[in-house]
């Protein structure tokens, strides 16, 4: 049947509220008697708190509580918001006696105002036993390196070597594969620390409801994990906590973490008063979460005809002072990249995830795949060059196709074994064709068009990601019918600005044949909505949306039963739902959903038409994307300017084109920042030197090239109405695509991101020097 | 959150005399406020008094008898969007101004504040140096000093008891060309190196030239050695030679943002590009 | 000290600590549509119009603009009666998380008051102080262009 609302640009249902400044974010409410929380941070990268004296601070008028490791629950947990049991080490308490990076939490003050709390921080006297620190993961793994987690946390691989995780996955025999190859290329690339920079920083408010239960209103991506972990840390039952997710001002993974909630809840629990903690921008940079910097080495062997014989990837991941998403991000580095080139029969992935005394990486859009592709997609280009093939040709020969599988799917999950899966929707060749055409790749590649000191180059990269975590991620929904034919959808899914609530309204509208405006969506409130794992792993549409879809089908069945009764017919299999009506095509009889509701509420056989449903996936069907970029490099200054960026994306059936484009473009611009300008600068002592927007540069409206998102639809049979996912994949493109374009323009490859102008000039000079000799 | 917690009183003087009197009386604890950016972004909790300049009528951009005057409280956008400034150097000055920082900050950064703070990364000071600007300040009586000379004195000490009234420069005729180069990490960044040139070109010869450069990372100064090197040279010859000379003689250092080598390289490149632009 | 502002057309008097910045005064008094907390003028989420000029309220001393006319996004339109710019942002997918939206809309509004026929470059320049991490700006520029047509049609 023709789609009614799927594929339409239905307006984002909360967009008008947001554009008119409605008070819908965490910190937009003001509760009387709120205690404001401010944190004291460690000035040392590695130290034990020998003594901490809070008596002066506690005496300051207006101060109600000073928290340290001495008076808070010493319950080891993970701050990572993941499914249970969490695939991350339980390596931190709310406050630790051992502080492990400059910016680690030492104490907190809860006071009548932010100003008083800040004053009180100065009165806290701390005596540190400063320990040697280690900042380099390779150094940290060596014998004799400072042991960062001497308590040997549950869930680490080998804490004595600072190893949170060690991953080894093999299929076939790569050494044999390299021997059989005609060419072998090895390339190493290093990606840097980065921050998500959500424009709304972490913000949490907690308070007691009228029955004395703790309510947490937080800018979070994972309300249900927050509830579970706060309960764990405070030692109270889950039933005593309610978590509400209001509108979120961006997350990108930084808010897939329990950072402020347990502290606020503890203060509320002890004082009975509302507690508020809002990170400053500086705290957001230093003391929230970052992206795992990784050093990736990829080795590819290939035959003359272009077919890969072996791919080996080694990822050295720096997971900073605490383990959080260390294991799962590193798993993704291999699991979301290597299957792309399944024609290689021999594959090996090894990763080491290492503690260092640096700010803590966590989940960040792309989740390890970004780092993997940064190296992989440039290595593939290098292989192509050696073989005399163009970048697109070599990928056409080796990429995974519909109906195929890869041993990596089964071997590498997220912290546990993965899941066998076969590709059921794919259009990579089409993506390559359309992207190449949009950029004019074949016309421009190798031409090095020059305009004075400025040279043009084109580059491309190919990607896959996933849609949710198979056999782990679960979402659910409840849908009920109202008198006017509208429905309430209560679902656990977590729209963090992505527009998931709108997608849900469209899915329900499609199944029930009603205008999405008649779908009232109430999301992620742990008291009211059924469970959802939260916003991560590109799972909104695929997991939460599927749950809603399943539930809508159940509701539809109930509606059709009542309609059949009302029509006095025997069989409702071919009934149609359209424009708010149920229609029996055979008899032409019709009844509105509104009439059905009135009837079932008030008149006969009374009941509430309501359905509940869940969804967990057997597989994680990958979206695919082919990225093409044209850049201009100034040979004299080293400045790289992206001119045009095209991304051809297959995310299955597109439910809302405008929202989908928004995800694509937003991810690309974030990726461009990551490729060209974003980086942390550290002092010798491990202190972050640039924790603000003046020095950590993210793209502004004046920094974007022409961006062309190209939507290529496929039908994913396991997805809701044929959809897959789209929110992460496109951030993976810019580093390798621009890297490949730089090579096209100037014949140089940088070994690390970001591609700053001074690096480009240095590489150019080295290249010239090489040529002379 | 309140950072300037010791501020007790605010003053809105209507004449410069009034303003100076308050400044003299309150001394070190008083701060003269132009745009207010410096005070709010780098708050000094010692400050007790604000002396706001908004009522002194210093937001004019005007020309009189061949002299252009820009009042101290004029913002970058006020100047950039004014017809007078747009008319100079084929619009080059206006466009150079409109690329600095972001729109929201261009509406707050003032000429007076830029001179008084002399931030090392200031683009305004680089521009004013190139335009052979005079600073007019008032400390009970009016003083006029060339900006490069002003900066060579202990101007911060002077400004403890004085207020900048305006900056002024000659209305240069069409034989003068102006250009500016800035190295930034991305569009709305502070400059990590900037350079401005004002040159009088006649019959393809550099009759007169001023070169200023800043964010070296030190504050902007005149590049006098380069000026002497270029004066009187044929423009085409100068273009060929200036890169090496500028690079070799650049007084630049490295900092956390860019290293010395890179700044040195860019000094040469900028000098060459600016001269090239004068030939077009 | 006492300060007076005309906020969105209505007169207000507040008793403030003279060292405070405008952002804090506004949020403390219920104008939660003004957002942000970088306190360096770098993110733009706190943008308001002060006598028609867009500025970051986190870097404006509340005492300095005593007597000024201040416009927040609610001064343009509200949920029942949105301004064409607000409608355009909604229609063109320019709103994702929405946190930068009020500030960006105000910057766009100021541009259109000054220049009713801006180029794409003019538009990008006008909103270059409003950082957005969600949209990548493309749909924001489209929305502003669309708003121009809406305004011309008298919507």
Architecture overview:
The complex is a heterotrimer of chains A (about 775), B (about 280) and C (about 160). With about 775 residues, chain A is of the alpha+beta class. Chain A is built from 20 helices and 27 strands. In chain A, strand 21 and strand 22 (about 580-585) form a beta hairpin. In chain A, helix 9 (about 325-335) runs parallel beside helix 10. Chain A starts with 14 loop residues before the first helix and ends with a helix. The model of chain A has no long low-confidence stretch (mean pLDDT about 95). With about 280 residues, chain B is α+β, with helices and mostly antiparallel strands. In chain B, about 35% of the residues lie in helices and about 25% in strands. Chain B has helices at about 15-25, 35-40, 75-80, 85, 90-100, 105, 110-115, 125-130, 145-150, 155-160, 225-230, 235-250, 260-280, and strands spanning about 10, 30-35, 50, 60-65, 65-70, 135-140, 140-145, 165-170, 175-185, 195-200, 205-215, 220. In chain B, helix 2 (about 35-40) links the parallel strand 2 (about 30-35) and strand 3 (about 50). Chain B is globular. With about 160 residues, chain C is of the alpha+beta class. Chain C has helices spanning about 20-30, 85-90, 100-115, 120-125, 140-150; strands at about 1-5, 10-15, 45-50, 55, 70. In chain C, a hairpin with a 2-residue loop joins strand 3 and strand 4. Chain C is globular, with a radius of gyration of 15 Å. Chain C starts with a strand and ends with a helix. The chains are: A alpha+beta (about 775), B alpha+beta (about 280), C alpha+beta (about 160). The interface between B and C is medium-sized, with 33 and 32 residues.
